[in-house]
Design brief:
single chain; about 775 residues; mainly beta; 26-stranded antiparallel barrel; 14-stranded mixed sheet; about 5% helix; disordered N terminus
Length: about 775
C-alpha cells in the first residue's frame, strides 16, 4: 500500500515565523478537537482511523490503559498499487483527486530517490512527475541537475532538458536533452562528457548524440576531443568504457612521423571476450610504405591451459618506380596445456618471413638486432622413475653480412629417460634413449636439396657411484655406454650422404671431484648477522673410448671424442640475517684436452700442432641487496693472450620502481679466425625515472658500437601526468637500419581508456 504525504514547509520561509492569526487558531483548535480527520480526505473505500473495530478481550485478559496521545503527523492519502511512500515537502501545495501541485523549495522523496525543484506536479496514480526550475535528482550513484524534468517514479523513465550531472565512476556530463529508460540506459543529445573534476576540464568529448549504459560504456557519434577548449581530434564514432575492470572498446590512437616511412597512425580495438580471454586488434598505416594489421589473443582456461598468440601482417605499397616489396608477417605463440593421462603440451613459436622486415619494422632494438630464432613444441610426461618427451623444433641463425642463415630441424625427436634408480648402496642405474630425425644446413643448401640429414636411434645406460661420506668432499663417478644406430651415413672418404645404415658404440668414463671445501664464518658484534665464505675447488675427468670410422657419422661440424680434464675454483659468500642469501659468487675454470686431435679444438692449429687448452672462463655474480646486481663473465685465450669475450651487466632497482638503471657491455671475438665474423664491442643503457614534483616520467635507452664508434639505437619516452590526462611522446633513432630513421610518436591517455601501444616493439620493455 502506498502512502503519499504533502507537508507545507515553514523551515525555509524567510524571516521570523509570524504568530498564528485568530481564524487560523480557531481552525487549528477544530482539528485538535477532531483528531481522526486528515489533512487530505481519505479516498473512497479507505477506512478512517475511527473505523477500526475494537478487538474483544480474551478470557481472563485485563484491559490496558490507552497510551498517551501522540502529536499529529502529516496527513496521508492511500492508493492500492504500490507499497512505498511518496513524500512531498514544499512552501505551498495544493491537491486534487490524483494530483499534487507544489511550489517553493520542493522536495520529493520516493524509495532511494530524492528530487528538488522550484515547482513539482505529481500524478499519484501513474507516478509521473513534472518538475521545473533548478531541478536536482539524487540517487545512490548519480546526481543530475536540469531545468525541466519529466520523470516516472516506478519505471524510472525520464526526459530532462538542459541537464548536467555525474554518474559513477566519476563521469561528468551535460546535454541538451537526456532520455532514460530504467536506471541503466540513457540517450543524450548535444552532449559533453569528461572524467575531469576541474571547473574547466582538462579534456572533454562533445558529440551530436550519445548512448550511456551505466557501469559499462558511453558510445558517441560525431565526437570531437578537446584539450581545454582546443579541438584536437574528430571521431565519427567513439566508445568510452565506464567499467573499472576490462571493457571492450577502442583505445586512444597513436600518431607519429618518420623520414623513411612517412606519416604514421596506429589504432587499437580491445575486446574483453570473457573473464578468461581477451583480444586486441591493431591497424597501422605508414604513408610511404603501406599498412599492417595485428592481433594479440590471450587466454586462460581451467586446469592450467593458457597462453597468448601474436600475429602481425604487413602489406607493402607499390613504389614510385613500380617495384613492390613482398608482404611480410611475424608470428609468436606461447601455449601451455595439460593433456589426458598426465601429459602436457608446451609450444613456443617465433617465426617471421623476413629478417630484413623485423630489422626495419620491429621497434624493439634487442629483438630486431637478435639473429637467433627458435620455435618448438613438445609433449612430455613424468612418472615414477621415468620421463618421456616428444619434440618438434626449428632453430635459425641469420648472418646479415652474407645474407644467409643456418636452420636446424628436429622433426621429431622422442626421448625416454630414467632418473637414478638405486640398485644397492651406493650404486645407481639410469638410462637415456631417443629417436631423432635431424636436418641441418644453410638456406641455400635447403634450396638446392643439399642439406645434411639423418635418422638415428640411441640407447645409453649408465651406472653411477656417488660418494659424500666426508662433509668437505664430494665425488661422483659414472660409466656410460653409448649405442647408436644411424639410418644414413657418409659414403667412405666422401661427404656424400647415402642411405646406408651404420651402428656405432663406445663407452664414457667420468668422475666429478669437488673438494676439499674450505669455509669460514664471520659474525657481527650483535650476533644478528653471519657471513659464510666458501672455497670449492673441483676437478672433472672424462674419457670417451674411440669410435670406428667416425668420419662416416653425419654431424653439423664434425664428430668429436672427449678425453679431457676440467679444473677450477668457486668462491661463495652467504649472508644470514633472517634467511640465508648468496650475495657473491666467483668461479674460474679451464679444460685441458688429453687427446686434442679428437677434440673441438682440432679444427684449429697452433705452431704446427693442435692446441690442447681451452679458454680460461670466469664468471662473477654480486647481489649486495635484493634490488642491486652486478654480473660479469670473461673468456681468456692463453695462446693469443687476449680476451675472447667479456660481458658486464649491472642494474639498480626494478623497472617498476621510481628509479631504475641497467647498464650492459660486452666484447666478443674469435682469436683463431678473426676474419670470419669480426670483433664486436657494444654498450647499452636503459633507465627510467619518475619526478613526482613535475608529474613527469621518463624512459631512455641507448646502444653504442664501440669498435665502429657509432650509435646503433637511441630512444627517449616522456609521460606527463596532467591530473586526469596523460601525454606520452617518444623520439627514437634507428641507426642500424638500411637507412637511418628518426621516429616521432605521440599518444594521449584518458581516464579509463587505455593507450594504443607499439605492437612491433618499444623501449626495450
Amino acid at each position: 500500500m502506498c502512502y503519499i504525504s504533502a507537508i507545507m514547509r515553514t523551515d525555509r520561509l524567510p524571516g521570523r515565523v509570524p504568530r498564528t492569526s485568530a481564524p487560523f487558531a480557531l481552525c487549528f483548535a477544530v482539528l485538535l478537537f477532531f483528531p481522526g480527520q486528515s489533512l487530505f480526505p481519505a479516498e473512497r473505500g479507505d477506512p478512517g482511523p475511527t473505523s477500526c473495530p475494537e478487538r474483544p478481550l480474551a478470557e481472563g485478559q485485563t484491559p490496558q490503559k490507552k497510551p498517551a496521545k501522540r502529536q499529529s503527523r502529516p496527513a496521508q492519502t492511500r492508493t492500492q498499487d504500490t507499497d512505498s511512500p511518496i513524500t512531498v515537502l514544499a512552501r505551498n501545495w495544493d491537491k486534487t483527486k490524483d494530483r499534487i501541485f507544489a511550489q517553493g523549495d520542493v522536495e520529493l522523496h520516493y524509495k532511494d530517490l530524492k528530487l528538488f525543484a522550484d515547482e513539482v506536479e505529481v500524478n499519484t496514480e501513474t507516478k509521473d512527475v513534472r518538475a521545473v526550475g533548478n531541478v536536482v535528482i539524487q540517487s545512490p550513484d548519480q546526481v543530475i541537475s536540469s531545468e525541466k524534468v519529466f520523470y516516472n517514479l516506478d519505471s524510472r523513465e525520464h526526459k530532462l532538458e538542459r541537464a548536467y550531472g555525474m554518474i559513477q565512476p566519476d563521469i561528468f556530463y551535460q546535454a541538451e536533452t537526456i532520455e532514460g529508460k530504467g536506471r541503466d540506459n540513457f540517450s543524450l543529445t548535444k552532449a559533453r562528457l569528461t572524467a575531469c573534476t576541474q571547473p574547466t576540464p582538462r579534456w572533454n568529448f562533445s558529440c551530436s548524440r550519445a548512448n550511456l549504459k551505466r557501469n559499462e560504456y558511453v558510445e558517441m557519434w560525431n565526437a570531437v576531443f578537446r584539450i581545454k577548449k582546443v579541438p584536437i581530434l574528430y571521431l565519427p564514432y567513439f566508445r568510452y568504457p565506464l567499467d573499472r575492470e576490462r571493457s571492450t572498446g577502442f583505445l586512444t590512437p597513436q600518431i607519429g612521423y618518420t623520414g623513411v616511412k612517412g606519416f604514421f597512425l596506429s589504432e587499437s580495438f580491445y575486446w574483453a571476450i570473457s573473464r578468461n580471454m581477451d583480444a586486441t586488434f591493431v591497424a597501422d598505416y605508414y604513408s610511404n610504405k603501406g599498412f599492417g594489421g595485428g592481433l594479440e589473443y590471450r587466454y586462460l582456461f581451467s586446469g592450467g591451459t593458457g597462453g597468448e598468440a601474436r600475429l602481425y601482417y604487413f602489406f607493402f605499397k607499390r613504389e614510385a618506380d613500380g617495384t613492390k616489396a613482398p608482404n611480410a608477417y611475424a608470428l609468436r605463440l606461447k601455449h601451455n596445456q595439460p593433456l589426458p593421462g598426465g601429459f602436457r603440451l608446451v609450444a613456443n613459436i617465433d617465426y617471421q618471413t623476413s629478417f630484413d622486415f623485423l630489422r626495419e619494422f620491429d621497434n624493439n632494438f634487442k629483438r630486431a638486432s637478435v639473429s637467433n630464432y627458435r620455435s618448438e613444441a613438445f609433449i612430455s610426461r613424468a612418472w615414477s622413475y621415468y620421463n618421456f618427451s616428444l619434440r618438434a623444433s626449428r632453430f635459425e641463425t641469420y648472418y646479415r653480412n652474407i645474407n644467409n642463415s643456418i636452420t636446424t630441424f628436429y622433426l621429431p625427436q622422442a626421448t625416454l629417460n630414467s632418473f637414478k634408480i638405486k640398485l644397492f648402496s651406493p650404486l645407481y642405474f639410469s638410462f637415456a634413449s631417443s629417436f631423432t630425425s635431424w636436418k641441418y644446413g644453410w638456406r641455400t643448401e635447403y634450396e638446392s636439396g643439399k642439406e645434411k640429414h639423418y635418422d638415428s636411434l640411441n640407447f645409453s645406460p649408465q651406472l653411477s657411484l656417488p660418494f659424500s661420506k666426508i662433509p668437505w668432499l664430494t665425488v661422483n663417478s659414472s660409466l656410460t655406454s653409448n649405442l647408436v644406430y644411424y639410418a644414413q651415413s657418409y659414403a667412405p672418404s666422401t661427404k656424400t650422404i647415402i642411405n646406408e645404415p651404420i651402428f656405432r658404440g663406445n663407452y664414457v668414463l667420468g668422475t666429478e671431484w669437488t673438494g676439499p671445501v674450505f669455509y669460514r664464518i664471520f659474525q657481527s658484534a650483535g650476533g644478528e648477522t653471519k657471513v659464510k665464505h666458501l672455497i670449492e675447488p673441483f676437478v672433472n675427468y672424462r674419457y670417451d673410448s674411440p669410435v670406428s670410422e667416425p668420419d662416416r657419422i653425419i654431424t653439423a661440424h664434425g664428430f668429436f671424442r672427449y678425453h679431457q680434464l676440467t679444473y677450477g675454483l668457486t668462491n661463495r659468500i652467504l649472508v644470514k640475517k633472517d634467511m640465508p642469501r648468496e650475495v657473491f659468487t666467483w668461479g674460474v675454470s679451464q679444460t685441458y684436452y688429453l687427446s686434442p686431435e679428437d677434440s673441438p679444438l682440432s679444427i684449429y692449429t697452433w705452431e704446427g700442432g693442435v692446441p690442447s687448452r681451452s679458454d680460461i672462463s670466469s664468471y662473477m655474480r654480486f647481489y649486495p641487496v635484493r634490488k642491486y646486481s652486478l654480473d660479469a663473465s670473461t673468456g681468456y685465450n692463453t695462446y693469443f693472450r687476449t680476451f675472447s669475450f667479456v660481458r658486464l651487466g649491472a642494474s639498480i632497482n626494478s623497472f617498476s620502481d621510481p628509479f631504475f638503471l641497467s647498464v650492459s657491455w660486452f666484447r666478443s671475438m674469435n682469436p683463431w679466425r678473426q676474419s670470419v665474423f669480426g670483433d664486436r664491442q657494444q654498450i647499452g643503457v636503459v633507465s627510467r625515472v619518475e619526478i613526482p614534483r613535475l608529474n613527469l616520467e621518463a624512459q631512455g635507452e641507448f646502444d653504442f658500437n664501440i669498435l665502429e664508434r657509432k650509435m646503433l639505437y637511441s630512444g627517449i619516452s616522456l609521460v606527463y601526468h596532467y591530473q586526469c590526462l596523460d601525454f606520452k611522446a617518444d623520439v627514437r633513432i634507428f641507426y642500424y637500419r638500411e637507412t637511418p630513421e628518426v621516429q616521432y610518436r605521440v599518444s594521449i591517455g584518458l581516464g579509463n581508456i587505455g593507450k594504443t601501444t607499439d605492437f612491433m616493439g618499444g623501449l626495450g620493455f
